[in-house]
Design a protein that fits this description.
InterPro entries: Glyco_trans_2-like (IPR001173), Nucleotide-diphossugar_trans (IPR029044). It is an enzyme of class 2 (transferase). There is one protein chain. With about 325 residues, the chain is α/β, with parallel strands linked by helices. It is about 40% helix and about 15% strand. Strands 1, 2, 3, 4, 5, 6, 7, 8 and 9 form a 9-stranded mixed beta sheet that branches. Helix 2 links the parallel strand 2 and strand 3. Helix 9 runs parallel beside helix 11. The chain is globular, with a radius of gyration of 20 Å.
Length: about 325
Amino acid sequence: MPSPPSRVVAVVVTFNRLDQLKVTVARLLDAARTEGLQRVVVIDNASTDGTAAWLDAQTAAQAADGPLVVHRRATNGGGAAGFETGMRLSAEWFDPDWMLVMDDDARPAPGAITAFHASDRTGAMAWAAAVYFPAGGICDMNRPTLNPFWHRGMVTRTLLGMLRGRGRDGFHLTQHDYDARAYRAVDSGSFVGLFVSRAAIETVGYPDGSLFIYGDDVLYSLAMRQAGGQILFDPAIRFEHDFTTMTDADQRFKPLWKTYYHYRNLLLVYRLASGPWFALVLPLMVAKWTLKVRFHSGERGQYLALLGRAIWHGLIRRTQVDHAQVLEWAEPK
């Protein structure tokens, strides 16, 4: 007798992007009707743009045991706190086999959940989807990665790529991996289209909600790998990410305060990933990040101040920082 399909719960974190959230919720509710998605858990990070009222209307309009479940946080804890909250509540309320995590501007392509159910997924602790922009190109920030410090020869290839301005290609999956029809073992995936198993929760717990944004997914993935778990990339599972924070055209974060979280948490990632190599990696990264001041005409002072704090706080592992303080640091002086 065939085993029943795995129970999958989607976890979506949102803050003040109601137009995007509407598209994502509609796509997920359609998957609940037609593709076997069990529940849609939305974590509202104290949005102020009408999100709460819209979500209330959606839950009121569904049946008593409808798939959409909403939890509103009292404060905005960023995506990191949202994912930790959402995964904890999903485990407590529904005990799913898998949690599918995503931002409010990301959603599974039609058929993605069906593709997940179509194969035996028990061999991995997590599965990473192939994430594309709405126009069709690969979403670079969501490319799964290999840890170059765990694979022979990859450190050299990555460093040489950095000299040519293509360091990411040294340890991120490429177009070839997306075009292939085979699974690919990876060391980390993003919280856009990542299926996290119950075994992962039992083994490494939940993501670190104190990080606010950026890096929580990589640190969580690396923890799974260090615990002996396998993460597999499946190009047949397609996701869409309507991402607009930074573009190749200007090479800067918008708004600027995101710079602090990005570099602080990236330093934490490099420390974990590089292990004994960290003392050699740190000065290279600091130099690279400092040179990016050239992209910040009109705000170079704020950028360097944020970067300095990010590096220091990353080194001392300080993640308990009030977001209002970060916003103040980013203000013009």
